[in-house]
Amino acid sequence: MTAPRRASATGGGRPVRADALRNRARVLEAAEAVFAEHGTTASTEQVARRAGVGVGTVFRHFPTKEALLEAVFVARLDRLATEADALMSAEDPGAAFFGFFARVVDHAATKNALSAALAEAGVDVRASTAGTGRELRRALGALLGRAQEAGAVRSDVGLPEILTLLVGASQAAEHVGGDAGVRARALAVVFDGLRAAPDPSP
Amino acid sequence: MTAPRRASATGGGRPVRADALRNRARVLEAAEAVFAEHGTTASTEQVARRAGVGVGTVFRHFPTKEALLEAVFVARLDRLATEADALMSAEDPGAAFFGFFARVVDHAATKNALSAALAEAGVDVRASTAGTGRELRRALGALLGRAQEAGAVRSDVGLPEILTLLVGASQAAEHVGGDAGVRARALAVVFDGLRAAPDPSP
DNA sequence: AACGATTCGGAGTGATCACTCCGAATCGGA
DNA sequence: TCCGATTCGGAGTGATCACTCCGAATCGTT
């Protein structure tokens, strides 16, 4: 899930130096902070400065800005997936599901690149199995299933619909952002829709 | 709503040349097409080429790329406002409101910069009165009010919440995009939430 | 301690972009 | 038709960005 201890998959690779590992972690942390604060258009040099490192070091570990962005996205989504997994043992499946949903949206309102990461994860839904955010989709799907079994969420929506709603809510929170009250009321509308009976009128 | 016939507000300005007016319109049209196709990161030169015009001409009419973007946004939002106004005379206020909402989202799924324009319009909600998208907010508010009077939309949501939902739905449609069925079902959830009773359980 | 391998740092490179400037082309009133 | 005013066109400018390259610094092993 984190950094490789040996370079090649052949097994006979050389051990990675300690400073290299440390710097890789620093760069990743700095990249998360910088992209959260200034958006994905922030320059690689900004990331390097924040990490206390030269640009060459950044590109050594992440050969492309796109690769760096993807690493940041994966880290965030995996962290969210871990949170979702922790909620699987909660008493109230409905509260667990809706609470997680709301938490993601709240985070998106303050962290700049989160909705982009979610969007990328959402895109992969249509494509196929693998790709960024697979863990999050699995964990969210489990939360959803449990909530549906408990009757807290209507049974005629699937994971793709939930992901679309989550991406939309997160992006709205990130770009409209400002008023937390408005955001909460808009989210309540979506939640009511998710609790509603499977469509009374065509 | 469109181009000024005279340059200054003093009233004694000189008339604008015909070719200047024609080129301004061409540039705006080209900008709309290019930004819809390639997003707001498309270069000014691309716009100029599409308009069959030099870059100098683009900058003559829109002194900044931001100004050009804003002009495109205003044009789109005003067009949407006109559509909304036309729906004010529809028989079924609920169908008019939901139909307009769905139409905006559908457009956002194919046109690239629309959700950005909507987001900018939504941002102004918190700020104050004037700004981009004022007309759209007025028209959408009227549609909403009529739908609420008819009992088609719950009475405890206001225009800010509706705008937030519209921005979120549009951005989700633009960025997740792909599957129209998923999009329709996710939108149906939001609509059910808007029809729901004003919150049965806290 | 000493040495070879690995990693670091950051000036340098080439590409791109928004924007400027001015001679050439065009317009429209006389 | 003629002429002054206005607009056009697009090469040029400066800034910024992703990415490269290589001498210097650091690591880990013997």
UniProtKB/TrEMBL annotation, chains A, B:
Residues 21-80 form the HTH tetR-type domain. This is TetR/AcrR family transcriptional regulator. The lineage of its organism: Bacteria, Bacillati, Actinomycetota, Actinomycetes, Streptosporangiales. It comes from Actinoallomurus spadix. Pfam families: TetR_C_43, TetR_N. Residues 43-62 bind DNA. The keyword Transcription applies. InterPro entries: Homeodomain-like_sf, HTH-type_TetR-like_transc_reg, HTH_TetR, Tet_transcr_reg_TetR-rel_C_sf, TetR_SbtR-like_C. PANTHER family: HTH-TYPE TRANSCRIPTIONAL REGULATOR BETI, HTH-TYPE TRANSCRIPTIONAL REGULATOR RUTR. Signal peptide: none annotated. Keywords: DNA-binding, Transcription, Transcription regulation.
